[in-house]
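Folding Task

Wanted — backbone structure
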Amino acid sequence: MIKAGIIGSTGYAGAELVRLLLGHRETEIVWYGSRSYVDQRYASVYQNMFQIVDASCMDDNMEELAKQADVIFTATPQGFCASMINEGILSRAKVIDLSADFRIKDVRIYEEWYKLEHKSPQYLAEAVYGLCELNREKIKSARLVANPGCYPTCSTLSVYPLLAEGLIDPATIIIDAKSGTSGAGRGAKVDNLFCEVNENIKAYGVASHRHTPEIEEQLGYAAGEPVVLNFTPHLVPMQRGILITAYASLKKEVTYEEVKAVYDKYYDKERFVRVLEKDVCPQTKWVEGSNYVDVNFKIDPRTKRVIMMGAMDNLVKGAAGQAVQNMNLLFGLEESLGLQQAPMFP
């Protein structure tokens, strides 16, 4: 059995990790970490775990946790993992960090966008970006995995194939994104109150959202050159889900069959990326509660553009599910183990 510890287990992503790992036959949770609820029964924080989880919350002592666990998940705010990680911890346990601390390779860009001093820049080169569909082999031998952000996961998987195959102009990419409120975390914020969110939709982080450089970096690898793009997220009145609509100019005239062949080249053998049938647009409802990403595209010959679309659950493939997928790779398990749940509907 893999012994797993979770720091930040009472946030939404942490709670989703608990739910998924409880159904993982090769894993035992040995540490429910939560600075806010130390010594409080986990099931009193999340009543859905009543008579399922008997443990109490523990602190965020990664040093002690590394002595007890084979893998540590840090579902914590930016800066925490970077301030705690050290060689002693990495020599004892694998670390999968769900924050942005190790996603961006250039420490100056991280510090500029996150307004934090990076406490462990020496591990940036070693950390593997945990987008399994693109970095599977590197993840298998990693000690430190940077679990991708939710918007970057959906954006990258939707756009990457056409960019990698040179079909679109990277200078023309625009990404419009929409997310449910759980993406903002469990902390009390006026903007997330029911009366603020219900019957409302709004753009936020316009030209300044901190997932922008992460998306640009990953798409830059596909393009083979730096990518600068517009990324605009929106908050919509639902609990879960991300929908990406991306636009780019085509470099040449292409047919539906040619573009479909490109997506199939990258995703035909991927368990969790579903390329939809012609003219079927992705919907968040069709992936809710699952680790699937649904992608599709539409060619607009009038404007010589292509519209790329993606939908996924921000708490599963966008956070906890992807972290479990990474754990499976780290320990030589079937990649889909514990993640076979069909999407929930309605």
In short: The CA atoms of residues 173 and 249 lie 8 Å apart. The chain has a mean pLDDT of 97. The longest strand covers residues 242-249.
